[in-house]
Amino acid sequence: MTLNGERGAQSIEPHTFADAEKLVQKLYQPGSPQEISRIQNALQKLQRSQQGWQFADALLQSQDEKVRFFGALTFTIKINQDWQGNSLSDADATLLLDRLIEWLIRLVNAGESQLVIRKLCSSLIAYYLRPAGRWKQCIRHLVLSFNEGHVIPSDTLSQGPETGPVAAKLSLPCLMATLWFAGGLVEEVGKTNATSIQTHKYHERVSSNIGDAVAILNCSMTITPGQDVKITEESVKCFQSWVMYAHRAWIDKALELAPLRSLTPLAIQALHHENSYDVTVELFTDVLTNFSAFLTAGDLESLSTLLASTRARQIVSGLKGGDYDPEALSFARFLLAYGDATVQDLAKKSEDPLLSQIVHQLLELLRCEGYAGAEDEICAQALEFWMTYTEFLIDSLFAAGEEKPAWMDSARQRVVEVIEASWVKIRIPPHEVAASWDSDARAGFKAFRADVQDLLQSSYTLLGVDVFENLARLALQSLEDRAWLHLEATLFCLNALSGSTSDEDSVDTMLSRLFGSSLFADMSSTVEPIPAKTRQTAVNMITKYTAFFERHFEYLPAMLNFLFESLKAPALASVAANAILSSCSSCRQVLIPELGAFLHQYEVLLTWATAEVYTKEKVIGGIAAIVQAIPRDEDKYGSLSTLVEFVERDVNDCIKFMEASQAEEFQASGVCALKCLASMGKALRAPDNAVIDLDGDAPQSVYWAKGPGASLQAKVVQIMETVTGLMRWNSDVVEASCQILRSGYKESAPGLFVFPPKVTVDLVLASKLDTARLDYVLDTACAMLSRQVHEPESTVKSAASAFLEYLLGVIHLMGGEPSSDPEVASSGIDLADKMVPHYLDCMMNTQNIQGLFDFTLKALTAAEIMPKRAAAHFWATFVQNFEVSGEVAMFAAAVTQQYGPQLCHLLVRNIGGEAARSELDVLAEPLKKLIFAQPQAKMWLSNALSSEDFPSQKVGSTEKRIWLQKIINLRGARATNSAVKDFWIACRGAEFAYAS
């Protein structure tokens, strides 16, 4: 062994077996990462060398177990990496197989460790999986060779005795090694593609080995007095591997199941033996979950007898008491797997005593001690089964039509019991318990509650309004008993049903009883020790049943008093504020007389510690929604003026905090002011269901533009411009400003937040390249152009020209590189796209407009999808023929003629292999529009396909010509997309042809 280098840096080169052995030993000893890496590199070099075969053979002779393991590993590596095609002759391949089997026999008989034997089995499996390998009766070959004590020629296997009797005489170590090989064999073959021409033969060979596998399993799974438990365990594991392999082969119709099925009774017998119970339960859990069709009716009946036994009841009873030991948990998973596999029988055959007992035990799994996800490890899985059970009942009910199945009533009753058990499990823990949970426990409990919501929603289809009425009665009882945690669980369940119930009289009757009770008064009480979660769920219930309050205004006062009281509590403020917004929006008309009280309440809110951004913006939005319902603009003015004054306080605070260098408060106040305005603007929009008088010829009101409301609108603009000017770098501020502007874009009538285009133009032009969310600013300009409906065309065109000039300036500052800021580039191109065709004359009259077209073409080469998608859409729009004035049409035609060849060149490069597959549909759009609208497109595309920089050498001129003619003939039809993908695959290579 040579060691060279300076300061400890060594190059290690083993020259003899002794050197190699020492190096392997050193590999498993503590050492520095650098030293270990050098040793690994040296050994890997030796493994890959031509002498690697001899090296592996020599290492297996070592007295050191780790060295022998490395020798077996080296055989695996040599077989996988160096045996390619016919690199080994048939004679050499036979010698290699014989040598591996000889080593296996020798080491097994010498009492070798499991580690080495398993690795040597891996080498034999690797041999089996080589394309040039011809080892067919591999299991029989090993059994007969073990029996003889040496390898026997493979061509004499047909002359030997039956495999079963020989296997029964093998020693424990020999039988164990055979099981390891047989199990590992199907696990590895199962990973290969059965439909591939290259690997299908492995699966054919496995089929020819099934008889031998069954023979060794038959003798090893038969439990006899004094039998070593390890043999039973390994035989069950091997059986499991073969059954799971059979699942795939059965799907492919490549394997008969009968031989393997004959072993199932032996496996069921193993369930009754304590020493083999764990591994056998895992087997049946796996089979029931993944391949229940493997089990016969007789097998399932045998399992049902075991699952309904006294021992099974004892285990479930222990689980109910909180005994979550591994054996109990594995049994529970076994029981649930059986339930999933036999759910139809469990639902239909309630009169069967065994199945009825199993259903009861499945229900008991929902009644275990402890909180779901935190202490109870099984209830979440049990709930999944009952959701499956419920879904089967629903499917059966619909399939039966008017004739309800006879078994349905008893099955429905089980669902009722499941809901009752789930109600107990979703009760929130006391604060001190919840505080001790880690994040996983909290997430698990939350997920379980969400699953219960899903169950309730499904069950409503099955149980109807009865489930709602029962829960409502339970809520009233909990309220009377002052059982606050019970009440929370019940309200949670009622919230889950909000989307399932309709406006049935019985539902409204129960809600009237609940909301007309002391619920809101109790939840507002500061005397009762009510958990915050209970109050929070009560608040959530208001948002869930908003439609009820729209029908029953008499409950609004108590409800709103409760919500405003809830604003005082930090834990409730956010949900209460959201509920206020929702309630005011839905019941705006009836709340108009209470507007003064709302304004007063908001002023009180401003004095509370909970008056934070979210709370204020939601509440002020709710009040603005009420103002929106006032018919006359003149009557809206006073309330809106008061709301704006509230916002001005935040602006004044913002300026004071800035002057005092209180950065955090400065930002919070500014953001709050604009978010409140944005919330007001959104709330003041006409409701989606508002009636629009399309035939009316009454002139539009000028109240907000030129009348008394103009000064208030100017004040809103001033607030927005002041805060934005101070904090252009704050993304929340910029986004809120844009949302304020967008509030009026969709409106069909003037209003406080329906600004003239100049306001949007000023915001856009004041934005710099380093302005936060510049992409959103550009999107806002785009939105204005597409939605501005009440401004003269000349005014909007003037705005479009200003936007275009601004966009060219941004492009210049970006150096014409879309990749320098992909989001801004994408939004900028979208803005340009929005100008076609209505504002093409603005483009025509703008200097340096070529910078825009160059930029969009460059975006087609960008690595980022956003600017590339935007550019593709821009050109797909631009190259079409529009009905515009002659001068504008000439401008558009000239642009297309100038940029068409380059556009085609870039599209062809992308489609020719440079684009990602996910981008092809996007790129196909401008291609289709070009072909349909531009007669010269064929010439441009032909030149692009024949250019020297075409990115692929895998398609020739003939394929290009055929493809071009195909897409020309399609004339922009949808099938062009498929043609584009096919051409891309041809250019990239067949390995990219995955299923779309």
Structural overview:
One of its GO terms (biological process) is protein import into nucleus. The chain has 996 residues and is mainly alpha-helical. It has a two-stranded antiparallel ribbon with strand order 1-2. A hairpin with a 6-residue loop joins strand 1 and strand 2. The protein is globular and about 110 Å long.
Radius of gyration: 38 Å
Q: Going across the major beta sheet, what is the strand order?
A: 1-2
How much helix is in the residues? Answer: 55-70%
Q: Which whole number gives the mean pLDDT?
A: 92
What would you call the structural class? mainly alpha
Low-confidence stretches are 1-9
Share of residues in strands: under 5%
Total beta strands: 2
Major sheet description: 2 strands, antiparallel
Shape, per Cα inertia axes: globular
Total number of helical segments? Answer: 50
Spatial separation of the terminal alpha carbons: 56 Å
Structural topology:
Blueprint: E1 2-4, E2 11-13, H1 17-27, H2 33-48, H3 52-59, H4 65-82, H5 90-109, H6 114-128, H7 138-148, H8 163-169, H9 172-189, H10 200-221, H11 229-251, H12 258-261, H13 264-270, H14 274-290, H15 297-307, H16 310-320, H17 326-341, H18 343-348, H19 353-364, H20 379-400, H21 408-425, H22 431-435, H23 439-463, H24 465-481, H25 484-496, H26 505-515, H27 519-524, H28 532-544, H29 546-551, H30 556-566, H31 573-586, H32 588-591, H33 595-605, H34 613-628, H35 633-659, H36 663-683, H37 709-726, H38 731-742, H39 757-766, H40 774-787, H41 793-813, H42 822-834, H43 840-844, H44 850-859, H45 865-878, H46 886-914, H47 920-933, H48 937-945, H49 957-970, H50 975-988
Helix pairs in contact: 1-2, 3-4, 4-6, 5-6, 6-9, 7-8, 7-9, 8-10, 9-10, 9-11, 10-11, 11-14, 14-17, 16-17, 17-20, 20-21, 20-23, 21-23, 23-25, 24-25, 24-26, 25-28, 28-31, 30-31, 31-34, 33-34, 33-35, 34-35, 34-36, 35-36, 35-37, 36-37, 36-38, 37-38, 38-40, 39-40, 39-41, 40-42, 41-42, 42-45, ...
GO cellular component, one term: nucleus
Protein name: Importin N-terminal domain-containing protein
GO molecular function: small GTPase binding
